[in-house]
Specification:
- By secondary structure, the protein is of the alpha/beta class.
- The chain folds into two domains: 182 residues, 3-Layer(aba) Sandwich (Rossmann fold), CATH 3.40.50; 111 residues, Phosphofructokinase domain (Rossmann fold, 3-Layer(aba) Sandwich).
- Helices cover 43% and strands 18% of the residues.
- The chain has eleven helices and eleven strands.
- A seven-stranded mixed sheet has the order 3-2-1-4-5-10-11, sandwiched between helices.
- It is elongated and about 70 Å long.
- It binds adenosine-5'-diphosphate (ADP) and 6-O-phosphono-beta-D-fructofuranose.
- 6-O-phosphono-beta-D-fructofuranose (F6P) binds next to loops.
Length: 319
């Protein structure tokens, strides 16, 4: 059994990372392993920013968004020399296994580290929900609920002024946040990078619905689908509607994690620790159809997780 493992958070932070850290530390201690925290992602791994964690050091964090270990983007780790430096640091401290929580970039780094001989288990942590092998990533549920709250508020003012309001949400390469929040919030249109966008058709639909008595419309735009400001301008020009644009930005990355994200993070982290204790490596834990599953880390980073087309079709039908 491994004696000393480490945990780190990397890439874009997400609500639930702290719940995962807390769970990993306490499960590992229960299993008789020592746990170290690596600060600031791969930057901390390469620059030797790590220390031992205790049960107390992860107290009072389950309810907090962000990550107490900090996160970063680190170019040096993308080089073989940088990764060797990181591995040397881990070995010098006697660390035999690492849990990496992050998005596809972080998990790509984790795979390379595993290939160098370090035992590594990845956990999908990103609000974008764009990791293959899991139905939900840690942080997605909280982010969707934050967006939903914004949609509800925008409805009030859109209705009062009879406006078309566009809400730009995160998702550089993925429309999951826009799709889930748009369906839950009853958006009239959802613009995502995975689906062809016909702006002329959307304008026609907006005109028709206005003519049939609809007072206002909400359009959710994933940032990867284009700039909501530019789309809003075009809609105003083509339809004569008064448009307003709201860009939610990093508000949707923060906040206290939902119950779902806390439970998901806690359960995935437990499995990651147990896997390391059993000598497993090069895997990621995810959540599929109600079960915690492990997938090959290489598969998780190579396959692309698409959006759910049935969800998109339903959102369109209901709008
Ligand atoms: P996310 O994990 O949220 O997708 P990034 O794509 O920014 O975020 O990746 C986070 C960090 O992971 C990067 O700054 C880098 O240190 C590391 N990383 C990303 N891609 C690779 C790669 N191909 N090889 C090695 N390290 C990588
Ligand atoms: O966490 C993923 C993500 O939220 C993307 O949707 C977004 O484009 C990106 O992070 C922005 O991150 P940052 O501002 O940290 O570069």
């Amino acid at each position: 059994m491994l004696k000393r493992i480490a945990i780190m958070t990397s890439g874009g932070d997400c609500p639930g990372m702290n719940a995962a850290i807390r769970s990993a530390v306490r499960v590992a201690l229960h299993e008789g392993m020592e746990v170290w925290g690596i600060y600031n992602g791969y930057a901390g791994m390469t620059n030797d920013e790590m220390e031992q964690l205790t049960s107390r050091s992860v107290g009072d964090i389950i309810q907090r968004g962000g990550t107490v270990l900090g996160t970063a983007r680190c170019e040096e780790f993308k080089t073989p020399e940088g990764r060797q430096k990181a591995l040397d640091n881990l070995r010098r401290h006697g660390i035999e296994g690492v849990i990496v929580i992050g998005g596809d970039g972080s998990l790509s780094g984790a795979k390379l580290l595993a290939d160098m001989g370090m035992a590594v288990v990845g956990l999908p942590g990103t609000i974008d929900n764009d990791i293959w092998g899991t139905d939900y990533t840690i942080g997605f549920d909280t982010a969707v609920n934050t967006v939903l709250d914004a949609i509800n508020k925008l409805r009030d003012t859109a209705s009062a002024h009879r406006r078309v309001i566009l809400l730009e949400v995160m998702g550089r390469n993925s429309g999951w946040i826009a799709l889930a929040s748009g369906l839950a919030g009853g958006a009239e249109h959802i613009l995502i990078p995975e689906m062809k966008i016909d702006l002329d058709d959307i304008c026609q639909q907006l005109i028709q619905s206005r003519d049939s008595g609809k007072k206002y419309s909400i359009i959710v735009v994933a940032e990867g689908a284009g700039s909501a400001a530019a789309i809003g301008e075009k809609i105003a020009k083509e339809t004569g509607a008064e448009t307003r644009v709201s860009v939610l930005g990093h508000i949707q990355r923060g906040g206290s994690p939902s119950a779902f994200d806390r439970i998901l993070a806690s359960m995935l982290a437990e499995r990651a620790v147990l896997a390391l204790s059993q000598g497993l490596s090069n895997i990621m834990f995810g959540y599929k159809t109600g079960l915690i599953v492990n997938v090959d880390l290489g598969d998780a980073i190579s396959y692309k997780k698409g959006i759910d087309p049935t969800m998109f079709r339903l959102a369109t039908l209901l709008s």
